[in-house]
Specification:
The complex is a heterodimer of chains A (about 130) and B (about 500). Chain A is mainly α. Chain A is about 75% helix and about 0% strand. Classes of the chains: A mainly alpha (about 130), B mainly alpha (about 500).
């Protein structure tokens, strides 16, 4: 295969699936971090990475090439020229929810640290079993 | 007025939740009464709504928020099945709110106000999840229910905090997976309204995105409903949650996601499609494994609450099996079991909460001769235990009976075998409890809160306990009325088999 053909394939992949692969990698990085890390704080941060990946996913499929921001400017009302604003609005809600979840998680983590003197999972579990 | 019932079910507890800390600051008891009154209002609204739906002959009631028409606006849809489930949710929430008052008598105003805020918010989240006709709205209510659930579990003490944090991590994964599944469905159709989605998705049911969505939905609702093998968070969370909130958390919080799964698979996708059937088979296999494993693990526990938690894994398995059978009787059994289980598990957690309130004891081996001191509580314990095993005429018998009938009719004998084995295992661990209660000698427990009058427990605790005991019997005696009069009206038109 020639270099140009290879480049085409790569270009094509990046144009159609590139961003989604990155989002997928981000999602699984978050899940991997939640499963493997031993520190509750790091688990929580990995949880945030995973939530952000889902938010990116919505924003990616709302995107449209050549679309402009969805504001009524009096020039055109053709929906094909605007990007879809609904996923952005949904993700505003999802961001608020993830903020709330993080807040509750940090509050719980502070109590865990107060009670058990550590946020390392094996340490906390050992002290909790006593 | 009556046309606003659907939104009032959510709105009344929501406003009470926000007002409760403020009123608690003014007067220590005021926040409590606001929350309880709002739950009474929500319960009356849901009963009114259920009667309306049944009087309509099962025709669904639609409520459009701010009169924005679907598919653009958010709507609440009430059909007979979610009408009866939302009635159950508000009733259990009301009873737990009344039941938990003696546990809080030593706490300050902030704790009281915060507790009732979380309690009312949990009711809001769960009833919203059941009523909503908008798929993204379901996510928001799911998170409201989850966040208040984490709070109520964390109120149970030091181990409760740890259990709540671990549940938070895995619960957030579930919510994110649901959001991802919704993203796939939205990008295919451009709609979020469930009724609209179900129409638009019909000719796209062989797309790979649908396979992904079904897998993600099983994982997401499986985690939330503690379906085996996603149940890792559940025993700790049920065991260490606040004793007053445990009936609501254990009885209802994990059943509503199971109902959401039923709604997605049977009403939104439609069960005649191949991939949905495969998904349901997976749910059935996981449910059957969960029934056996949960029952075996329950036998091994000495902590009464932990035994109940593992038995919940088995009970959610029954619902999964009922969905997987997917025939007329299988679905009736699954819905009936959602209702029955809320009362059975709720009353058992109320019983052990009462014993813990009076004696500070939760292990099964120390319950000897407790019936002499707490006769009413033990009456409910016996009724609920018999219902869990599935002995007629209690409610638990009939839901198992319908599930078995469905399995027999569709010739899936493996499920029949699993159900029979699990009934025997249930009998082992509940008869062990009854043996301890009636035969073992009195271990001489120390009274933490000795009764003041003639009654064994404060009246606020005793009434919900006895009401739940009677409700289990009533569900058994009236099962024909519930099935014929309500559930049959709302079943989907297509079945798997």
């Amino acid at each position: 295969m020639s270099d140009a053909g290879m480049l085409d394939i790569i270009n094509n992949f990046l144009a159609t699936k590139g961003i989604y692969s990155l989002v997928l990698i981000l999602l699984f990085l978050g899940l991997y971090g939640m499963i493997t890390s031993n520190n509750y704080m790091k688990k929580m941060m990995a949880m945030n990475v995973m939530q952000v990946a889902v938010i990116f996913f919505y924003l990616c499929f709302a995107q449209k090439e050549g679309g402009m921001i969805p504001i009524l400017d009096g020039i055109t009302t053709d929906p094909a020229l605007y990007i879809n604003p609904l996923p952005h609005a949904l993700m505003l809600t999802a961001i608020v929810v993830s903020l709330g979840t993080t807040g509750v998680a940090i509050a719980l983590l502070m109590r865990i640290k107060e009670t058990y003197g550590s946020v390392e999972e094996d340490e906390v579990l050992r002290r909790a079993d006593k | 007025m009556s046309q606003h019932f659907p939104v009032l079910i959510v709105l009344l507890p929501l406003s009470a939740a926000l007002l409760s800390p403020f009123f608690s600051y003014l007067h220590r008891q005021a926040g409590k009464w606001i929350a309880i009154l709002s739950l009474v209002g929500a319960f009356l609204c849901s009963v009114g709504l259920l009667l309306q739906v049944v009087a309509n002959g099962g025709e669904a009631i639609h409520y459009w928020m701010g009169d924005w028409m679907p598919p653009l606006g958010i709507e609440f849809v009430v059909d007979p099945i979610n009408g009866v489930i939302v009635t159950m949710i508000t009733f259990v929430a009301l009873c737990s709110a009344i039941y938990s008052t003696p546990f809080l008598k030593k706490n300050n105003w902030l704790y009281m106000g915060g507790y009732y805020t979380l309690m009312a918010l949990l009711c809001v989240g769960l009833s919203g999840m059941t009523l909503t006709g908008d798929a993204f709205n379901l996510y928001v209510y799911l998170e409201i229910a989850s966040l208040s659930g984490y709070g109520l579990i964390a109120l149970g003490g030091n181990k409760g905090t740890l259990a709540a944090f671990r549940y938070l991590l895995i619960g957030t994964i579930a919510a994110s997976l649901y959001l991802l599944a919704l993203g796939f469905m939205y990008s295919m159709t451009g709609s979020l309204n469930m009724a609209d989605l179900s129409v638009l998705l019909q000719d796209k049911m062989d797309s790979p995105l649908i396979i992904m969505s079904i897998a993600l939905l099983i994982a997401a609702f499986g985690i939330k409903a503690a379906l085996f093998p996603f149940h890792g968070w559940q025993p700790d969370a049920y065991t260490y949650s606040h004793p007053g909130a445990a009936p609501l958390i254990s009885g209802v919080m994990s059943k509503v996601p199971a109902y959401a799964m039923l709604r997605f698979f049977f009403y939104l996708f439609g069960a005649q499609h191949l991939f949905v059937q495969h998904g349901l088979t997976v749910v059935g296999i996981l449910g059957a494994l969960g029934i056996i494993l949960g029952s075996v693990m329950a036998i091994a526990q000495d902590d009464f609450r932990r035994m109940l938690a593992y038995s919940s894994v088995a009970q959610i398995g029954y619902i999964g099996v009922g969905l997987a059978i997917g025939s007329f009787y299988g679905l009736i059994g699954a819905v009936l079991h959602i209702i029955n289980h809320a009362f059975m598990k709720g009353s058992l957690f109320m019983v052990i909460g009462g014993v813990r309130y009076r004696f500070g004891e939760v292990s099964i081996s120390k319950l000897g001769q407790i019936g002499k001191k707490m006769p009413f509580t033990v009456f409910t314990l016996v009724v609920a235990a018999l219902a869990m095993i599935g002995i007629p005429p209690t409610g638990g018998f009939f839901s198992k009976w319908y599930i078995m009938l469905g399995a027999m009719q569709t010739e899936q004998y493996i499920y029949v075998a699993v159900l029979v084995i699990s009934s025997l295992l249930n009998a082992i661990y509940f008869f062990r409890v009854l043996e301890n209660v009636f035969i073992n000698p009195d271990p001489g427990l120390k009274e933490l809160n000795p009764p003041t009058g003639k009654l064994e427990l404060p009246l606020q605790m005793l009434i919900p306990i006895v009401v739940f005991g009677i409700a289990i019997l009533a569900l058994g005696f009236c099962n024909e009325m519930i099935v014929d009069g309500i559930i049959k009206l709302g079943l989907p038109e297509v079945f798997v088999r």
